[in-house]
């Protein structure tokens, strides 16, 4: 085990370190002499006390694995063994690592566990590459917001959640007014910077569980889970006002600064209904707001009946 290129450590029945091989020293930055005979091996991986995979196997706490690790599964063809992956703090080396670990018990003739061998593999580069690919698949490259694909997936998921929990679901469709004229005046680079500033202002007004997405071009969409009509109206007006306060000059426009029009819809999800109806209703409200002069919001007249988004009411900006 000392000569293996794979980081390995072994715990005895009392969770004391029996073996801490050279590859483990290189991975953790901790010499074997510091941990052999102790139960402080967790300090090599975490800033706070926390069980390693080997500890869980030794103590029979395998049911806790899904609470402590990003991904976990029984070890193939290994009785009571475990495989898991997670981020580790690695205090001694001063950087976080994503480690894949395998913990395999060793039994005596009576079937009692006498030791557990844990092997590790540093998958930090692979994990970072995976995260980058996921971001490319779900994030808009210009604004950093969720992209259309992520919006569609999230809306379907939130619709099902609203259906199960019998909670309202609101949607805002936000469009930058006279953006083509702004783009023609300031050029594509100026237009990109405008969209980035609008996106940042939008995101800053949202709760942690809301989703802001670039729907397409100069249009944005906001999913507001468990948000009824009154809350959606407050958020919409807050967004409209905040973007106006950015005071991005819009030369030649009816409005001196960049503004947005917002359409809103609220639905009580019902079996057999589709979330696309919520999008269509919010979109119709958006275009009605633009027809009536822009820089305003269009909201439902009343709380919607189950499975509908309600009638619209124009709310002109003060």
Indicate the topology:
Elements: E1 8-12, E2 17-20, H1 22-28, H2 32-35, H3 53-59, H4 65-68, E3 71-74, E4 82-88, E5 97-107, E6 113-122, H5 124-138, H6 148-165, E7 168-176, H7 179-204, E8 211-216, E9 219-225, H8 229-245, E10 260-268, H9 276-291, E11 296-300, E12 312-316
Parallel strand pairs: 10-11
Antiparallel strand pairs: 1-2, 1-6, 3-4, 4-5, 5-6, 7-9, 7-10, 8-9, 11-12
Protein name: diguanylate cyclase
Domain PAC: 77-135
Domain GGDEF: 167-302
Describe the model.
The structure is a single chain. By secondary structure, the protein is an alpha+beta fold. It has helices at residues 22-28, 32-35, 53-59, 65-68, 124-138, 148-165, 179-204, 229-245, 276-291; strands at 8-12, 17-20, 71-74, 82-88, 97-107, 113-122, 168-176, 211-216, 219-225, 260-268, 296-300, 312-316. The protein is elongated and about 85 Å long.
Structural class: alpha+beta
Helix-strand topology string: EEHHHHEEEEHHEHEEHEHEE
Shape: elongated
- CATH homologous superfamily heading of the largest domain: Reverse transcriptase/Diguanylate cyclase domain
How far apart are the termini?
Answer: 74 Å
CATH domain topology of the largest domain:
Alpha-Beta Plaits
Q: Which architecture name of the largest domain does CATH use?
A: 2-Layer Sandwich
The gyration radius over C-alpha positions equals: 27 Å
Helix content: 25-40%
User: How many H/I helical runs?
Assistant: 9
* CATH C-level category of the largest domain: Alpha Beta
How would you summarize what this structure contains?
This protein is α+β, with helices and mostly antiparallel strands and 318 residues long. It has helices at residues 22-28, 32-35, 53-59, 65-68, 124-138, 148-165, 179-204, 229-245, 276-291, and strands at residues 8-12, 17-20, 71-74, 82-88, 97-107, 113-122, 168-176, 211-216, 219-225, 260-268, 296-300, 312-316. The protein is 36% helix and 26% strand.
């Amino acid at each position: 085990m000392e000569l293996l290129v794979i980081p390995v450590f072994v715990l005895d029945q009392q969770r004391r370190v029996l073996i801490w091989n050279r590859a483990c020293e290189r991975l953790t930055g901790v010499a074997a002499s510091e941990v052999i005979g102790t139960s402080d091996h967790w300090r090599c991986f975490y800033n706070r006390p926390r069980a390693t995979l080997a500890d869980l196997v030794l103590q029979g706490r395998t049911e806790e694995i899904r609470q402590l690790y990003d991904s976990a599964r029984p070890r193939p063809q290994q009785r009571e063994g475990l495989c898991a992956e997670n981020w580790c703090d690695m205090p001694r080396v001063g950087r976080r690592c994503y480690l894949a670990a395998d913990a395999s018990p060793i039994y005596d003739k009576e079937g009692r566990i006498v030791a557990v061998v844990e092997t590790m593999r540093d998958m930090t580069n692979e994990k970072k590459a995976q995260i980058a690919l996921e971001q490319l698949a779900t994030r808009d490259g210009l604004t950093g917001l969720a992209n259309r694909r992520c919006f569609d997936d999230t809306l379907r998921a939130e619709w099902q959640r609203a259906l199960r929990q019998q909670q309202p679901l609101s949607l805002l469709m936000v469009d930058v007014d006279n953006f083509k004229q702004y783009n023609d005046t300031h050029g594509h680079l100026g237009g990109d910077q405008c969209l980035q500033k609008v996106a940042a202002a939008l995101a800053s007004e949202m709760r942690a569980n809301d989703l802001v997405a670039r729907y397409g071009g100069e249009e944005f969409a906001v999913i507001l889970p468990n948000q009824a009509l009154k809350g959606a109206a407050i958020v919409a007006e807050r967004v409209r006002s905040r973007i106006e306060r950015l005071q991005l000059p819009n030369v030649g426009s009816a409005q001196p600064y960049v503004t947005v029009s917002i359409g809103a819809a609220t639905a009580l999800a019902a079996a057999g209904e589709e979330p696309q109806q919520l999008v269509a209703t919010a979109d119709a409200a958006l275009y009605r707001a633009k027809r009536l002069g822009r820089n305003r919001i269009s909201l439902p007249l009343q709380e919607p009946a189950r499975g509908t988004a309600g009638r619209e009411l124009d709310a002109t900006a003060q």
